[in-house]
Amino acid sequence: MHHSFNRSYAFSNSQHLSVWQPPKTSAATSQAAGSQPASNQATTKTLEQPLSTLPWNTDTEDQAAATHAAAKSGGQRSLAALLPNARFFSGNDVRFHSIAVSPEQCTPGQLVVYRIGVDCPDELISQALARGAAGILTEQILPAPLPQCIVSDVDRTVAELTASELVDENGLRADERLLTIGIIGESGKGTTAMCLATILRDIPCRVAYQTDLGQSDGCTTEVSRQSYATGARLLSELNDAADAGAAVAIIELDAVVLRTGGYDQVEFDVLVITGRNSGRSDFGPSAVDCAIERVRGDGVIIVGSEDQHSITSIRETGFVYVTYGVDRDADVSLRTIGIEDGVLTAMIRHEMNSAIMESHLGCGVFAEALVAAAAVGVATDNPLVQITESLSKLRELPGRCQSITADDWNVASSSPRMVLDVAGSPRRMEHVLGAIRQQMPIRDRQTISMHAETSSRASRQAKLWCVLAVSATDDAATLARYGRLLETMPDHCVLTCDRQCKDRFLSLSHNVLDGVGNCAAMRLVADQERAIAWATRSAGPNDTVVVLGGIDRRSAHAQREDLEHLKSLMTELQREVAGVNPKSGMDTKATKLKVFNPEGM
Fold this sequence. Notes:
Layout: E1 6-8, E2 11-12, E3 15-16, H1 25-32, E4 46-48, H2 58-71, E5 72-73, E6 76-78, H3 79-82, E7 87-89, E8 95-96, E9 98-99, E10 110-113, H4 121-130, E11 135-138, E12 148-150, H5 154-165, E13 179-185, H6 189-201, E14 207-211, E15 214-216, E16 221-222, H7 231-243, E17 248-252, H8 255-259, E18 268-274, H9 287-293, E19 295-304, H10 308-317, E20 320-326, E21 332-340, E22 343-350, E23 353-359, H11 367-379, H12 384-393, E24 402-404, H13 409-414, E25 417-421, H14 426-439, H15 452-455, E26 464-470, H16 476-488, E27 492-497, H17 505-513, E28 522-524, H18 528-538, E29 544-549, H19 556-577
Parallel strand pairs: 1-4, 9-10, 10-11, 11-12, 13-17, 13-18, 14-17, 18-19, 19-20, 20-21, 25-29, 26-27, 26-29, 27-28
Antiparallel strand pairs: 2-3, 5-6, 6-8, 7-12, 14-15, 15-16, 21-22, 22-23, 24-25
């Protein structure tokens, strides 16, 4: 059964003041096993959660405090007490006061961590001996006269040690001091996270977030040069956010990290599942199944009404869930009124309430991300009018169907429309191209151009051009699916690759062509900049050029740099096609007009 759900929060100085009342899980479980009545007959539950006073079991608190005190005796921590299942070599225990950042920065009494394939064992042993390390945490025995703790996974063990260290005076972990929201799915995670952060900031409260676009502790925003924060680093950043007064933490979850246990020390109060997820074709659970395992027993899951695979998994667990949908019946639904010039006009509905909104985000493509964020806003008992107003404020996100437009009207009318998107998966590519195709006018755009060369081109039928940059991380099946989409969705396609895999472009293109019926219809250009330039110069002023992929997404900083570079390139190409010199700003193709003089003077 679909469950409508309200969560009430009272915010004062960015802290919750109420007390969480656990839901009746038995009723939710029994209803989930039955039939599915209409969503307007769904059960409404009101839960209230604090960030500082959660009603944990007293015995559990005392036991945790006793274990914590036993592990910390005399200012030192005991690995034998913290890791009772670990095995030791050259001793029965390792007593340390903290974990060294690296062997080179180790100080006397610290624990050194050896990662296979990352650290050189000889250098690590010499540094640990010279700097007075208390012992070594490792997955295999090293030839060193130091106490060693042997574990199965050092990263997960370090995260476990960090979680025990970052317990505050109330016995709460960092994720228990915040309303923790995780976002998982095959597409739309980052966009949904930023939309949700915009809604919750207007409560108002301090919102911390971890996304591939950047991170924030609720006070400051940073475009990091590091990859996704997971394990011990994520726990430390959540602890910093809680200390900074943040009330909510939004975490964009990585599918690979989820399946390898990178979030095992974090529990989520709310889980948002974006897109339409499918089960894995290989062995093991899917990322969505792993994320559901990290939800608290009284947590809530936000899921799309079309994502039947995820809904089936949720019903099996008995969690309370809220559905969202675009132009479909759901607990929270978005009804599209129209999309004009990249502006989405829609109505968001929940039960008997509705509100009209306009969104400039992503040329109207990210309706599902908007309604998913709105569903979380509804679950936290925010007024629907406030939710729509907050969503309307977010106008653009870098690389998320970002429209590249010129300020000059002559340039905009004489050059093709250009859209930049990071893509990353065939499903995301299919969604973007399909949405942009629907926005293209059926009839030709009637424009009056001041240039003789472009006046004849303005009457051409609008075409959709796609410049796709593939990556070496894509497998053969994914590349073949890209080829099928390139052949069927755009009118013209150009295949290229990112800068890191130019030497493998030939083999990558062969895998793409495995999914193509007519190979001659596809243009192959190894250099991404040349591919974008060729498509822009070949397109007409009524056409749309969509640039997908080719972005280094290993860190937020690298992603922003690549996006800025491509944006600058596409802007210059637009001015070049329009006949305007990018450097001087002068019109190089302007028609010389005679002065009208009826008296012949």
